[in-house]
Design goal:
Blueprint lengths: L1 H42 L16 E5 L4 E5 L14 E2 L12 E5 L21 E6 L2 E14 L14 E7 L4 E14 L1
Parallel strand pairs: 4-7
Antiparallel strand pairs: 1-2, 1-5, 3-4, 5-6, 6-8, 7-8
Length: about 190
């Protein structure tokens, strides 16, 4: 009986090691592929010319230096514009180059390999965020952040006419974290 328990215990340890290894390898592969897509985006002069909605090419890149985040986003109409694959552009699909735009991005928080906004709660007022899109670099500054009840909708508590960037993620199972940043500078690349 003791040898049976030892064998079962050893099997549990081996299965655990295999699962942890697979998760780490999978995360590495996904990160490596993402980095290659970001590199391709910048090599193509910061412009996505592909309108194939099944394509995984990035049309832009979000960079938040304070939390060391640099991740691309796809066409808002792409099948890959979803929270389980990417940082997601939410409706209404306003992009940074549009007049009076409110550009809204969402991603998971947590510990998964798709938790791109896991460190979003470390941001504060005055922090800088960059969006690279349409051969321009957009510099935003966080002006406010707040939590609200997680109910599937975002209540944007800002009536200004400033061009803005909204970042949102889950704070807990029933709270949502929302950051509002105003456009400070638009730089031609």
């Amino acid at each position: 009986m003791k040898s049976f328990i030892r064998i079962v215990f050893l099997l549990f340890i081996i299965v655990g090691i295999v699962l942890l290894t697979c998760d780490k390898v999978g995360s590495y592969i996904i990160l490596n592929a993402s980095n290659k897509r970001i590199e391709k985006f910048f090599v193509n002069n910061n412009i996505s010319k592909n309108n194939d909605l099944s394509d995984y090419s990035y049309i832009g890149v979000l960079e938040i230096p304070k939390i060391k985040l640099k991740k691309g986003f796809v066409n808002p109409f792409s099948i890959h514009n979803n929270i389980n694959e990417n940082i997601t552009i939410l409706k209404p699909f306003m992009l940074p180059n549009e007049k009076n735009s409110t550009f809204i991005l969402a991603a998971h928080s947590g510990n998964s390999h798709i938790s791109f906004f896991r460190n979003l709660s470390n941001l504060s007022i005055g922090d800088i965020i960059y969006i690279y899109y349409d051969n321009k670099k957009y510099k935003y500054e966080i002006v406010k952040y707040y939590e609200e009840k997680k109910d599937g909708d975002i209540n944007i508590k800002d009536n200004s006419s400033n061009r803005k960037l909204i970042l949102t993620t889950c704070k807990s199972s029933n709270k949502q974290l929302i950051y509002i940043a105003y456009l400070k500078k638009e730089i031609e690349l």
